[in-house]
Amino acid sequence: MKLLEHQAKERLRSVGIECPRGRVARSPEEAAAAARELGRVVIKAQVPIGGRGKAGGVKLVETPEEAAEAARQILGMEIRGYTVPSVLCEEALEIAREIYLGVTVDRDRRGMVVILSFAGGMEIEEVAEHDPEKIAKLWPDPFTGPLPFEVRQLTLTALSAVGGDPGLPKGAYLTSLVPLVQRLFELSQRLDASLCEINPLVLTKSGQLVAGDAKIEIDQNAEFRHRDLVTELGPDAASATSGDDPLEAEANRRGLTYVHLGGNVGIIGNGAGLVMNTLDLVKQQGGSPADFLDIGGGAKAELVKSALEMVLLDPTVEGVFVNIFGGITRGDEVARGLIAARDELGIKLPLVVRMTGTREQEGRQLLEEAGITPAVSAVEAARKVVDLVQAQGGQRK
Amino acid sequence: MSILLDRSSRVLVQGMTGSEGTFHTQQMIEFGTQVVAGVSPGKGGTRHLGLPVFDTVAEAVRATGADTAGVFVPRAFAADAIMESSAAGVKLVVCITELIPVNDMIRARAFIDRRGTRLVGPNCPGLMSPGERAKVGIIPNNIANPGPVGVVSRSGTLTYEIIQALAKAGYGQSTAVGIGGDPVLGLSFSDVVELFGMDDETTLVVLAGEIGGSDEERAAELIGAGYSKPVVGFISGRSAPPGKRMGHAGAIISGNTGGPASKVEALNRAGVPVADTVEQIVELVRERLGAATRP
Question: What is the pTM of this model?
Answer without folding.
Answer: 0.92
